[in-house]
Amino acid sequence: MSLKLLGHPLSICTRRVLLVLAEKNVKFEFQTIDFLRGEHKESSYLESHPFGVIPLLEDGSFKLYESRAVGEYLATKYRDDGPQLLPPTEDVEKCALFRQWASVEYSQFSPLAEQLLMQKMFNPMRGIPCDEPLALQIIKRLEEKLDVLDTILGQQPFMVGESFSLVDIFYMPMVDMLYQAGQRQLFEDRSNLKVWWGKVSTRASWKKISA
């Protein structure tokens, strides 16, 4: 089997790629990289991924990292398999909107979500107490972004428009981790985001990678 994914099943970034593979029903080999033991910093791994993070995709001799880039590569290569996760290449406007909404996830949502997870989940796991005043500041800023997304999702069922896409996948593992960190109110208190999460989290692909 030429397609191989190196990562960890609990990693947010790895789960993005696993979701794409599940949606496309692509067969692949999975190699767990134990980042808690520092395997992502070992020389053998750094030869393929010089930044030493996960995941890493190997497709024969071709190697690719950064989960969003890997997801787009797979969605493009296997465009004819499973649901369409990308806009048609000939539709310039739809492609531009796709890029716009992908950028919103990357620049407006994920940085704040990561900061909040650090305070509410990852720091406590390391024995570092949550900085509650800082967490409240992050929540306030994140809520402003989510209010905008909630308004948009009142006009369309998915992040890019009428169809489930790669951009929805980009959000899903991070949203799930926020639920696990006790921050469900961020989504449950916003009716359109709540409906969106209800739709995407019942997809067979999500159930498969969450089993």
UniProtKB/TrEMBL annotation:
GO terms for molecular function: glutathione binding; glutathione transferase activity. Coiled coil: none annotated. It comes from the Eukaryota. Residues 91-211 form the GST C-terminal domain. GO terms for biological process: glutathione metabolic process. It is an enzyme of class 2 (transferase). This is glutathione transferase. It comes from Aspergillus brasiliensis (strain CBS 101740 / IMI 381727 / IBT 21946).
